[in-house]
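Whiteboard transcription, Tuesday session. T.W. wrote the structure tokens on the left side:
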């Protein structure tokens, strides 16, 4: 979520005046463009009336034409602030929902954006939600030499719902030389390292930690893999659209809305397609997958690699221009214009 705020605010700052309220001492404040004006959020619980009152006063002092809150906590605070005397100084308010967890605040906010159709389906009356996907900042990458060993790359936080353990266990069933690289950190790292030792995979699974060279890693790998059971819209998958030769992912969030069936593992419902109804989109938000299914999918890619690369190149050509931060900011600007014109 922080990356989305940084990138959209920085891109917008080249077009209009942008102020950002963020927690005092936020680790990402140095990443904003110089043109962005930063303000500290009032300290205190988002449910503390004094904190909310201070937030409303600070917003009125900034005097924006429009207020855009990202994620649940910020949306709750701004919604309550908008109902105080003086409110937001007359500025309309947009809330962005980033994940598939149920949150009532988005049922009450008039103007809502969601980062995928699946996220939009978790809001009451999803047809009123503007879908604006997340994006990545694209840079040039020199072609990377691939290893003789079939290499898979996972880019993810090491959290339980990311199910990196599924990818580790899938390695046991692969009948060809292969290795799994895991780029990311999180609470599950110790447990995952124990699992690697338990399965005797120390020479086939490597933990890379946090990396700044994700585009190069994706270019060097044969396939990017993701086994998450829930997502709003994974930035790692968007990076795969830009730099990977092939992506295999569970059909969660935006992945289901972009990738054909052959690149989805553990599909439920109408395989490889966005579910037609809000109910089926909600059901698709949480997908289970087992290691055997991933091992089978990886084996299919390995055995017919050239065909998969060619097919995925078509997916990239069709979609990747949509997921740059410039394109995403253009989409947000269209929503802003609609809201300010009273049509949103």
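and on the right, the sequence the group agreed on:
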């Amino acid at each position: 979520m922080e990356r989305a705020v940084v990138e959209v605010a920085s891109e917008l700052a080249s077009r209009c005046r942008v102020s950002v309220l963020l927690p005092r001492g936020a680790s990402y404040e140095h990443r904003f463009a110089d043109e962005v004006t930063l303000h500290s959020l009032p300290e205190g619980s988002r449910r503390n009336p004094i904190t909310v009152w201070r937030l409303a006063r600070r917003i009125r002092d900034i005097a924006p034409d429009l207020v855009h809150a990202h994620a649940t906590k910020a949306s709750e605070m701004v919604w309550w602030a908008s109902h105080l005397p003086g409110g937001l100084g007359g500025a309309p308010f947009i809330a962005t929902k980033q994940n598939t967890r149920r949150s009532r605040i988005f049922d009450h906010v008039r103007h809502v954006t969601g980062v995928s159709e699946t996220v939009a389906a978790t809001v009451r009356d999803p047809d009123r939600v503007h879908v604006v996907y997340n994006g990545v900042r694209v840079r040039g990458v020199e072609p990377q030499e691939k290893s003789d060993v079939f290499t898979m790359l996972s880019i993810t936080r090491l959290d339980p719902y990311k199910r990196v353990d599924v990818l580790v266990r899938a390695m046991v069933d692969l009948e060809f030389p292969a290795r799994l690289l895991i780029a990311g950190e999180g609470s599950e790292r110790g447990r995952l390292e124990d699992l690697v030792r338990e399965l005797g995979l120390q020479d086939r699974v490597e933990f890379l930690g946090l990396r700044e060279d994700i585009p190069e890693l994706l270019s060097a790998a044969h396939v990017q893999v993701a086994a998450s059971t829930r997502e709003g819209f994974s930035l790692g998958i968007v990076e795969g659209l830009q730099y990977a030769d092939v992506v295999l992912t569970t059909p969660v969030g935006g992945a289901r809305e972009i990738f054909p069936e052959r690149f989805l593992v553990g599909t439920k419902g109408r395989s490889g397609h966005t579910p037609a109804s809000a109910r089926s989109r909600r059901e698709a938000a949480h997908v289970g997958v087992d290691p055997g299914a991933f091992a089978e999918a990886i084996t299919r890619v390995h055995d017919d690699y050239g065909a998969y690369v060619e097919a995925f190149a078509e997916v990239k050509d069709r979609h990747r221009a949509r997921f740059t931060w410039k394109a995403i900011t253009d989409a947000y600007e269209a929503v802003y214009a609609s809201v300010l014109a009273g049509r949103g």
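Someone added at the bottom: The radius of gyration is 21 Å.
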